[in-house]
Amino acid sequence: MGMMGEDQVQNRDKRLKVFKEDYMDWEEEEEFEEDMEEIDGEMGICKNTNSPFYYDQVRCCASFVVSDALEPDFPIIYVNTVFEDSTGYRADEVLGRNCRFLQFRDRQAQRRHPLVDPMVVSEIHRCLNEGTEFQGELINFRKDGTPLVNHLRLMPISEDGIVTHIIGIQIFSEANIDLDCSSYPVFKQSSSNKPAPFNFNSPTSELYTDNSQHICPILQLSDEVLAHNILSRLTPRDVASIGSVCTRMRELTKNEHLRKMVCENAWGQDVTGKFELSTRRLGWGRIARELTTLEAATWKKFPVGGRVEPSRCNFSACAVGNRLVLFGGEGIDMEPMDDTFVLDLDSADLEWRRVKVASSPPGRWGHTLTSLNGSWLAVFGGCGREGLLNDVFVLDLDAPRLAWREVAGGGPPSPRSWHSSCAVDGSTLVVSGGCTDSGILLSDTFALDLAEERPRWREIASSWVPPPRLGHTLSVYGKTKILMFGGLAKSGGSLRLRSCDAYTMDLEEEEPQWRQLGAAGLTTAGPPPRLDHVAVSLPCGRMIIFGGSIAGLHSPSQIFLLDPYEEKPTWRILNVPGQPPKFAWGHSTCVVGGTRVLVLGGQTGEEWILNELHELCLASSPDGDM
Ligand SMILES: Cc1cc2nc3c(=O)[nH]c(=O)nc-3n(C[C@H](O)[C@H](O)[C@H](O)COP(=O)(O)O)c2cc1C
């Protein structure tokens, strides 16, 4: 950029802004391309002796692309006709997409083609993150699958110090590769593919050598095979550990592309998708580290506008994507409420909005609200005007017309309140325990697959069940596993005590069984017994517990962490700076993307105040995330 005059930059930026607003029409295109060529000529692409590009080619057959750098994932806003001819993709097929589709040979492929050098991709990623120029060579594919060598140059365009657009210039040439015969990898071996220079100071480096100092076979693999076939299958924590083994492993594990794959494998694409914005600033390594060590966890407090009226307690709240939904509750004189409020976390001003929803479920409190299938919410049970309920209502928040729909679901659990629920595998609502009209505590567990055409309740008949309870939590980890914690549990005779026991069940087993975590209970000092607390499952399968009703002087905001995958799970205390809420109740807490825990309703005496919320942020969020 150094050789372009300021006026030219401004002119070009103005033109690019026009693109953004109403994509260019084809007459303007030619003029624009001429401008661009002029500017590029003056920028001296060919004069740069380090450049792998040659000016004649840029002039006559360079394809180019413009991307919007202010939108997530650099969507394409313009391609020229050379791009269309060279790649076989029409402009209307690619506008709005990120240019990485050229790295996929088959449109159905889940991963980029192995011939695409991951090191080059991660270098592109780094340059885009840092707003610097990139020049390099990588394999791309035409729409018909033909491999091409792409001599790619990416140039950031800035306005007031902010990168607003990226211009990509591609010179495509034939790739003389026979895809049927080529063995992977075919791109040039990086210098570090040679047996790595060992850092013998590293305490573990001997693991990789035998007694006669021969290199362990694993280190004779190329960088690409090590990265793609081995390291990408490890957990973020293992990748961090292996990175400390020797210099070469450190270099390999620093690769952003690899780190992204590792996070995707460990947490799934739903979760990693939510980090795309943060990782532009922080990088995948940092996000993985923060969620593993929880070193960035902080409490924050936010004011919220709007009103949830009439005032109430014992409502139930839940996060659906970036929206918080509150349903029902107990109003003055034990009035059961049936209204729905939404708080949009993406809006600049946080504000409760009462939404009109057709065919509302009967008013209630002590019910559960569960988020399923991305945009659905399910209400189950609770205490209504006529007594306890066992009905299920579902609301699709993305539907054009909002309406609660009752799900008939034969053979339901008995009516109850203060039970617990969770969503397993996206669409199965699981309900356990709670309290009957006559005050009897329950210990049963039921599941209802709402993706079925005619959902039917199914009792999960475990041969052993935890003592009956209410006010406990059910959280999901590893997709199909449930962890039950705490609650007010029956403890022999008519005695009921707060519990601090944890139980797990894997619904994928043929005959799922409840098991106590840690055969004789968890040995280390864990969370004090409690009910109506908050339980959050983290993307990596660990759990945190806080809040609820606790006896004595214990602090409800003290956070406890548990990894149910450990051979002998132990509780750890997590010290989190910031301003924690005074109270945190499970039914008034929403978990967004597994990394943000929003606690609604500070309480003063009898009243619940919904005009502030506390957030436990588990990873650094991009500025203005809230
Ligand atoms: C303007 C622009 C043009 C790009 N052109 C190409 C291209 O021609 N071929 C390619 O493989 N990647 C291209 N990229 C890079 C990819 O879009 C993407 O940024 C890269 O794969 C790294 O990101 P990822 O690791 O998230 O995939 C381009 C990026 C930008 C911003």
UniProtKB/TrEMBL annotation:
<dbReference type="InterPro" id="IPR015915">
    <property type="entry name" value="Kelch-typ_b-propeller"/>
</dbReference>
<comment type="pathway">
    <text>Protein modification; protein ubiquitination.</text>
</comment>
<keyword id="KW-0600">Photoreceptor protein</keyword>
<dbReference type="GO" id="GO:0009881">
    <property type="term" value="F:photoreceptor activity"/>
</dbReference>
<keyword id="KW-0716">Sensory transduction</keyword>
<dbReference type="InterPro" id="IPR001810">
    <property type="entry name" value="F-box_dom"/>
</dbReference>
<feature type="domain" description="PAS">
    <location>
        <begin position="76"/>
        <end position="131"/>
    </location>
</feature>
<dbReference type="InterPro" id="IPR011498">
    <property type="entry name" value="Kelch_2"/>
</dbReference>
<keyword id="KW-0157">Chromophore</keyword>
<comment type="similarity">
    <text>Belongs to the ADAGIO family.</text>
</comment>
<dbReference type="GO" id="GO:0009637">
    <property type="term" value="P:response to blue light"/>
</dbReference>
<keyword id="KW-0675">Receptor</keyword>
<keyword id="KW-0288">FMN</keyword>
<dbReference type="GO" id="GO:0007623">
    <property type="term" value="P:circadian rhythm"/>
</dbReference>
<dbReference type="GO" id="GO:0005634">
    <property type="term" value="C:nucleus"/>
</dbReference>
<dbReference type="InterPro" id="IPR000014">
    <property type="entry name" value="PAS"/>
</dbReference>
<keyword id="KW-0833">Ubl conjugation pathway</keyword>
<dbReference type="Pfam" id="PF07646">
    <property type="entry name" value="Kelch_2"/>
</dbReference>
<keyword id="KW-0539">Nucleus</keyword>
<dbReference type="InterPro" id="IPR035965">
    <property type="entry name" value="PAS-like_dom_sf"/>
</dbReference>
<dbReference type="GO" id="GO:0005829">
    <property type="term" value="C:cytosol"/>
</dbReference>
<dbReference type="InterPro" id="IPR036047">
    <property type="entry name" value="F-box-like_dom_sf"/>
</dbReference>
<dbReference type="Pfam" id="PF24681">
    <property type="entry name" value="Kelch_KLHDC2_KLHL20_DRC7"/>
</dbReference>
<protein>
    <submittedName>
        <fullName>Putative LOV domain-containing protein</fullName>
    </submittedName>
</protein>
<dbReference type="Pfam" id="PF13426">
    <property type="entry name" value="PAS_9"/>
</dbReference>
<keyword id="KW-0285">Flavoprotein</keyword>
<keyword id="KW-0677">Repeat</keyword>
<keyword id="KW-0880">Kelch repeat</keyword>
<dbReference type="Pfam" id="PF00646">
    <property type="entry name" value="F-box"/>
</dbReference>
<keyword id="KW-0090">Biological rhythms</keyword>
<dbReference type="GO" id="GO:0019005">
    <property type="term" value="C:SCF ubiquitin ligase complex"/>
</dbReference>
